[in-house]
Design brief:
The structure holds two protein chains of two kinds. In chain A, 34% of the residues lie in helices and 15% in strands. Chain A is an alpha/beta fold. The two termini of chain A are 13 Å apart. The chains are: A alpha/beta, B alpha+beta.
Chain lengths: 151, 362
């Protein structure tokens, strides 16, 4: 690996844009993602910018248990995110459906059936520190050796 | 007058300002919004369908997950409905502890709503200040109940954990900090000339329109309807002698100010509870039986009603939930957004009504 590539890896891991999409949760995980913005947890000190715009995102936080309203839409959203990209499942809902995965439910978990998931944060809801740790553990890997891999 | 629609602008479902997916379709003439329509259906999980035929012990946790922001009130209304149905008595100390936790939950919900509004009008400084003070409230919730969001603190006949004497000291100290900070931020919001430009006289909901749209909660109280506060009918709140706040302007500014004032009101309610907290048991026991009841309470967003029908074993035969946000979203789209002079004010007006899509669709 060239020196230029390693510099790129380092710099790009400190410049990550995050978007979040709620595909049918109870809102508990949404507010814990918002709490990551607060001065106490301060996700922006790591160079991670939470801006809910899929077209400039690198990491997509998927929250919720995949309701029928998101059929096709979630996949379209995933395609709109420019490469390279990863998705993180936040909370129990996208992993297993949590309490909502019962008879007569409308949800269709897990989300990994519909889009590729790189990391999972279990919890109902997970603490902001856990969400932060997951984003930070994925951040250096999103762009790692991107030019080499593309070739 | 001839109705000319230049362009139909859809906002959402993914939008930088919306926490949850909802789509607002605005018909505009230039920047002027003629009419707006909301499109829901992104969050329908079918919670009521899952609840039917299950024992109350399971439904209790499902009820809490109807809405993650105001989870305590869903828990409280569901359990109090069961108690009323089966005439289960609650110890005095437990009733006051419920009020303390409920008011802490209301505080964090209101502060989050005000954060969202300040974030939407791009006043990020005030937004971050508010999110910081919210963490103090979350600390207290966690110290008392053991969890930040879904705490399942209230059970039939009492509450799960007692408030220890050192917790009372922490709570009083933290309340003093929160009160000082929230008062400071309220004055910042009140006196900010740029905030006033984005908030005053925008998204006006008159008292008549609020009555017509059946607006509830802070949205209605900002339009001069203090009687919409369901807490005045609750026996524990009655004893604490509390009076609902209200304003008469009915614009975005009034809705945010009502929430600030309610946070301060909640702090004084918690202080009154702590002053009058008697010693005694926190769980009286009791098993819910058969019955049918309609019961409602005041959620942070307005009136929340549960209709429950159970059988002798305590299984929920039929349940329907009416959440407050649906009326406020309706009021927002059909009354507040009509006549908004700029498209930039549409997200902020929508957020000022504090819509909670998760509990609207369940």
């Amino acid at each position: 690996m060239s020196i230029l590539q390693s510099v790129k890896n380092l710099v790009r891991s400190k410049s990550i844009h995050v978007a979040y999409v709620d595909v049918g949760s109870c809102n508990g995980c949404d507010i814990e993602v918002l709490a990551c913005l607060s001065p106490r947890y301060d996700i922006e000190q790591y160079g991670i910018y939470v801006h809910n715009n899929p077209r400039e995102a690198d990491i997509l936080l998927v929250i919720g248990a995949y309701t029928p309203g998101w059929e096709e839409k979630l996949h379209t959203l995933w395609e709109k995110i420019p490469d390279p990209k990863v998705a993180i499942a936040v909370g129990n809902c996208p992993i297993s459906g949590c309490l909502f995965n019962r008879p007569h439910t409308l949800v269709d978990p897990p989300v990994s059936k519909h889009i590729p998931i790189a990391a999972e944060v279990p919890g109902c809801p997970p603490r902001p520190t856990e969400i932060l740790a997951a984003v930070l553990s994925v951040a250096p890997l999103v762009f790692k050796d991107y030019e080499v891999a593309k070739r | 007058m001839k109705r000319t629609v230049d362009v139909s602008v859809p906002i959402g479902p993914i939008h930088p300002c919306f926490k949850e997916p909802a789509r607002v379709k605005c018909e505009t003439k230039g920047e002027f919004v003629i009419s707006a329509e909301v499109e829901l259906g992104y969050m329908k999980k079918g919670i009521e369908r899952i609840m039917r035929g299950r024992p109350w012990q399971e439904v209790m946790f499902l009820a809490e997950r109807v809405c993650g922001i105001c989870s305590v009130i869903h828990n409280m209304v569901f359990i109090e409905a069961l108690e009323q149905m089966s005439t289960i008595a609650v110890p005095e100390r437990a009733a006051l502890l419920r009020v303390i936790v409920n008011e802490l939950d209301r505080m964090q919900s209101h502060i989050l709503a005000n954060f969202s509004y300040c974030y939407t009008i791009e006043h990020e400084t005030l937004a971050m200040y508010l999110l910081d003070v919210r963490e103090h409230v979350m600390d207290e919730l966690e110290r008392i109940t053991g969890a930040r969001v879904t705490c399942a603190y209230i059970v039939p006949g009492g509450v799960r954990f007692d408030l220890r004497s050192e917790d009372v000291l922490h709570l009083r100290a933290n309340l003093a900090v929160i009160e000082e900070e929230v008062t400071r931020y309220m004055h910042m919001f009140e006196g900010g000339p740029l905030i006033a430009l984005r908030s005053r006289e925008i998204g006006v909901l008159s008292r008549g329109a609020a009555l017509e749209a059946h607006a509830v909660g802070p949205t209605a109280r900002a339009s001069g309807m203090p009687e919409t506060d369901r807490r005045i009918h609750h026996p524990t709140y009655k004893k604490l002698g509390f009076s609902p706040v209200s304003r008469t302007e009915g614009d975005n500014y009034a809705r945010i100010m009502v929430r600030f004032q309610e946070v301060l009101e909640s702090i004084s309610i918690i202080r009154k509870c702590l002053d009058t907290l008697p010693e005694g048991p926190i769980r009286g026991g009791g098993i819910p039986g058969a019955g049918e009841i309609a019961y409602s309470g005041e959620a942070p967003r307005g009136e929340l009603s549960y209709f429950i029908k159970t059988d002798a074993a305590g299984r929920v035969v039929d349940i329907s939930i009416q959440t407050p946000s649906i009326m406020n979203i309706e009021a927002c789209c059909h009354y507040m957004l009509k006549g908004v002079s700029s498209l930039a004010d549409v997200p902020s007006t929508f957020v000022s009504a504090d819509p909670c899509i998760a509990c609207t669709e369940r």
